[in-house]
Amino acid sequence: MNINILGGGPEEFIPDLKKYQEGEGEVWIGVDHGVFRLLRRGITPDMAFGDFDSVNEDEWKLIEEKVKQINRFMPEKNETDMELALNWAIGKSPETIRIFGATGGRIDHFLANIQLLGKKENLHPDIEIEIIDIQNHVQIVPPGEYTLAEKKKSKYVSFLPLSAGVEGLTLQGFKYPLENRNITLGSTLCISNELIQPTGTFSFLSGILMVIRSHD
CB count, 10 Å around CB of 1? Predict the structure, then answer.
């Protein structure tokens, strides 16, 4: 099962969702105004989360009519709508969680969404969680060894510490390889690397690492 979450970020950052509709086992969740956006794209969400302060009366009527399971919250709460949706999704133990509409616009919302992926409770070795927009794929991973396959549109691969440091980072199959290197928070050493083989591997011993695949 794959769970796809659409948030309320700017439309111009949202990729074409059609290719993510293919196949069985695709579950769709709308977050606040993202619910209406899914409906407008011909996708009926299986679940909706939000305080819905960003939808107008007509949009809310359509949401109530089309979506069977709506989790509506008061605007005054401790978690963002996206966090509530992500918590629910992780509880279902899917293979993959894809988050759209989580970048661009307000930088506080964007950074909060990035940090959500780095929460200790959300670093699941068996669940691949990524934020996807029209130009980037972002993952945050705990220590271990990982394989990256070449993607047609994603020329660049960047590695950024999300913790104070990442120890023992090794990159193989990349234009700029590394061997057991320690990277501190704020380092730009691992920006804009590139795969030179069909697949590459990266591994590290401790810390939390953000992996960004992007194109110009």
Answer: 13
